[in-house]
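Example record used in the benchmark description.
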Amino acid sequence: MIAKLFEGERIRLTALRADDAQTFAGWYQDGEFARLFDAGPAVPKSERDTEKYMDEAARDRGRYAFAIRQHYSDEMIGILEIDSVQWTHGSAWLAIGIGDPSHRGKGFATEAMKLALRFAFHELNLHRLQLTVFSYNEAAIRLYEHLGFQREGVFREALHRDGQRYDMILYGLLKTEWQAGNE
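Model output (structure tokens):
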């Protein structure tokens, strides 16, 4: 029996839609989201900015961007991206963000990441996924380590936020490590 590739128990991964641009831009009005999702300055983004991002993602053959939606709602609650795929080496970058704070801490990111890992390792046949996380994002660090990601390095004091310096941590997961944890 073939597993439902983009559907979990409570959420599903879908293509980004034109009407998602407004939701995505709204998340960037929240400085907390911007500081969790992006290393750049926390700057509000316009709907046009997010439309441009979505258009670029749709055209890029080495980039897979998904909306995270709950089964009972068509509303986008998060975004997930497998990016910068290097087909020769079988590696790519992974990023996830849950937009509305009321949806954070409820396991939606865990479920979405499990779907993304299955997609990356089974459908795309990648060998390695990597991501970076800011040292102050303790919830994300717990999630990545729970999923089997290995801490591979640190960009020491790479971020400056509110007068303090924070590390950016590099994590990686190999297909064989993922398979060992999912048998």
